[in-house]
Amino acid sequence: MKKLLKQALAACAAVLLSAGISQAADYNLKLQTYYPATTLQIAKGFADNVKAMSNGRVDIQIFSGGELVGSGNILKSVKTGMIDIGHGMGHHFAEMKTGTLESGLPMAWMDATEAQILYKHRGLKEIFEKQYENAGVVYLGPTRASAYQLLTKTPVSSLDELRKLKIRAVGAAAKMLTNLGVSCVNLPVEDIYMALSTGQIDGVLYGNAFEYEETKYYEVARYINTTPLIDPITDTLIINKKLWDSFPDDIKAIFRAAADCAVNDYYFFTANESMRVIGTTFKDKTTSFSAEDQKEILQAAIKVWDEEAKRSPEFAKGVEILKQFAKEKGRL
Length: 332
Prior knowledge:
D-Maltodextrin-Binding Protein, domain 2, 2 domains, six-stranded mixed β-sheet, five-stranded mixed β-sheet, globular, disordered N terminus
């Protein structure tokens, strides 16, 4: 009987191995994003790529916005090791002097290609990498989210109409809107739906049409202005330094490669999906700002650039990079 039992166990083991069942991971890690549970594509794609590239040696569990810590505490929690990996926004982190520059100053770049050039080839990425090093974590790189378009409970096609409303906006975009005479409220992502439904706010600057459909915000705010105020907003991937230092070189290379893969995937995915959503969910409920209003928005944005440049020498260096690029593009 013992011999038969051993043979049976050996047979079961062979079947499991032939079916592709892998051994337990060498690293079981936690990643929290600031995104709600309905829009976890960036975090999941990154985690899936790390797992595949490492042949199952690294397994990353995903937590959505607010599940473990508040969005503003992601950096602090990654530093202390409460969270292994963070997917957040620079302007959420009080520790980051260049946070609003990293996330995207309004009108600083007009598409993902421009953002990539500025980050990778004009020096922005090096600035942020050093800042996160000073904050005690390792910067894996940026991820592009989407264009930022206004979602409101009533149609808005002019700045005069917008000035009558209270808008949830954060970072430099909120400062630009404030300079334009718009009342802004800073709320965490997890509170937006309730704030819209109760009338605490009249609109939100969070993403594009697809994201407003995914988050269900369209249920309580039906109108979208398709003029982008930032295109795209930029997030960040960071990892605990002690954990990073413990990795062998091949695992570090895998994390770097997975971060590079994650840069633009979500941006192009949402841009494509937004075209569908605008033709369905938001059919006949879209507006845009006039060319005259857009010029006023740009001037308000440039004032924010100059104000933000006073934060630190690093920020000022970044703004100079943006201005030089804008001049080369003929916008300044």
